[in-house]
Amino acid sequence: AGSQCLSWTGLNCFFCSLPAATAAVYKQWIPNTNFETASNWDKGRVPCARDVVHFEKDKVISVFVGSPHALTDMYLPLNGEFLLASGAAFTAFDGSWDPGCDSGGTARFADAEHRSWFDPTLWQDVLPSGELRPGGPIFSVHEERVPCHHDDVIFQPETSFRVNTDSSQPVIHLRSISVMGQELNTPSSWAGYLGGPSAPLQFHGNGSLQVTGTGCPDKSGCACGNALDGPRICAALLRAPGRQCPEPACQSPLQPLGHCCGVCGATINLEFTPDFDLLKYQDKLIQELLSQPKYAGVQMAMSKVHRAQTFLGVVSRGAAPLIQIVLIDDRAGAQAGTAAEQLAADIMQDIAQHGEALGISSGKMEVATGSTASGQVGNHPASGITAGTVMGLLLSLLFLGGILFLYRKGKLR
């Protein structure tokens, strides 16, 4: 609030005013293009009075300026803007002594073009106030560390940014977007912002952001919606040095849906009924199991996913919604994943006893730990054989019977 916007296209400058169901999830963009952020400059410091400031001629940029600056000279790009906070300004250096700036030089602004919307390391979970969400036993698979279709996105107040929205899907749906402290939570308010001068400088790429204003309407949860961009998310995660997946201690690690790295531990896939409530069930597991001292180092991710299904392992039957639970722990070596495995067994036992009342029709467990080669699998329906299994067997018998009938009639050779 109270900011001004100094924009230019070519040599033209002008001033403009800047507009200030299930549990909502808030994700905040981390990097910025602020003038006072030292890491945005090649010298690792904010330019001082004797410096000559260079913005690349052909780089589109939006830069927030929070305080007054005296500079020797400044080269601007052909298309960009300064967002000036109250009291912020640029003045020409008058040659007087400037402490800490005895020798001037050239300060170049860093390239922000390649900061990708689908880089999970550039987002953080926050509270509605923008404060970091306290840590705990819950984590997210990589696809869900990027904003999902029903999430609220926050760009910090008094910050500028530039984000590449290249995507494998034409539209990226979101519940709301907050920019400069203003929450845009309706399609019309977002369309109005897109029509202003700043949006084209802040967002670029082939993916179009669309604000819906609606959260997840289903108490069993909603799939994140980033599956099509899963390869893009993993490429961004692993591109930089030091971000490679850690070498798992188990020989055949598990590969949870939506996660870029193999893990030692356990996964549980739940089939559910309309009575299932994702948040209530997650709270139940935290309070009754994860809070136990023996599971102090275990972390859990839980969300709705869509797993591809096939008929007889060949013909695609589409994707079925499941609740995926991923369990990992902080143990090393041969003990890696063993606490997660024990917790998974406790969850499966609880499902066998109370699954029907919780809206869980069946659960399938898979385990990979440092102490086992791989793949201990358990399947525990909550109440007998599932209807899907029965139908699959009947269809298989009908299919084989039809082939035999046609063969005996001479219709099939």
UniProtKB/TrEMBL annotation:
GO terms of biological process kind: protein transport; receptor-mediated endocytosis
UniProt main location, coarse: membrane
Keywords noted in UniProt: Cell membrane, Membrane, Protein transport, Signal, Transmembrane, Transmembrane helix, Transport
GO cellular component: apical plasma membrane; endocytic vesicle
Membrane topology term: Single-pass type I membrane protein
Subcellular localization: Cell membrane
Signal peptide range in chain numbering: 1-24
Membrane-spanning residues: 385-407
Protein name: Protein amnionless
Organism in which the protein naturally occurs: Nesospiza acunhae
